[in-house]
Amino acid sequence: xxxxxxxxxxxxxxxxxxxxxxxxxxxxxxxxxxxxxxxxxxxxxxxxxxxxxxxxxxxxxxxxxxxxxxxxxxxxxxxxxxxxxxxxxxxxxxxxxxxxxxxxxxxxxxxxxxxxxxxxxxxxxxxxxxxxxxxxxxxxxxxxxxxxxxxxxxxxxxxxxxxxxxxxxxxxxxxxxxxxxxxxxxxxxxxxxxxxxxxxxxxxxxxxxxxxxxxxxxxxxxxxxxxxxxxxxxxxxxxxxxxxxxxxxxxxxxxxxxxxxxxxxxxxxxxxxxxxxxxxxxxxxxxxxxxxxxxxxxxxxxx
Length: 303
Known about the structure:
The protein is α/β, with parallel strands linked by helices and 303 residues long. Helices cover 54% and strands 10% of the residues. Helix 6 links the parallel strand 2 (112-117) and strand 3. The chain is built from 12 helices and 5 strands. It has helices at 5-16, 22-38, 40-43, 45-56, 73-86, 124-137, 154-170, 183-196, 221-238, 249-269, 279-289, 294-302; strands at 94-97, 112-117, 142-146, 176-182, 204-210. It folds into 2 domains: 5-86 and 220-269, no CATH class; 94-213 and 280-302, 3-Layer(aba) Sandwich (Rossmann fold).
């Protein structure tokens, strides 16, 4: 398979221990955004797999000289982009399941929706069991599902904004909204959504914290290494991106683990490397804006 020029340049920078200029960084971000976020709409998982395997192929072997050089910026960029891609296996897709509009007597039911926002590494496949619970407990409710990508760059930002608009539009005719936020990524998605569509906040009747926000300052380098490496390996397996099939799992894991250590060091020194707000800022926003509605939400959901 012919490598895209952006990936060739990334590999060359890693091999030579050189930094990437702005043009090279932008080209990498553009390539991965197209493959990981745009093309899956027409090509399915194959486009995601292509981008994932291209980035994975850039990661050096654990004993490579790339890890002994002072300049490891290109290794960090490769791992950061691979991790960001894996945060959403479904790219910027939004899935809607309509509920039952009328009761048995033919009376229109109040329009209620559950907004299911995925954790880092999720795909629609991982969100479906959550949707199934709501379909069983509250069959009249609509569900709107999506997972926010971790990719960076101008193109990814525009696609993420379009995803937020699509989600907001799916809730325009709804009177009551319950938010099911899964981990930091889910809650970060909710924050971005409600800030881009403020009227949505007035419709919220409850929030389910399916694993709440973890404060970033509480995560040390080793914990970040585990988060990055295990998320990426898990996505590699679930999305069938392992080079050489099951036989290539061990070597691929070692390369991911080695590069994840470089990225973990950088994250600890600058959490904004991940883009967006820090976890501390997310937690502060959470305390100010959303805790008031939890008790009401659980009461409406289960009673």
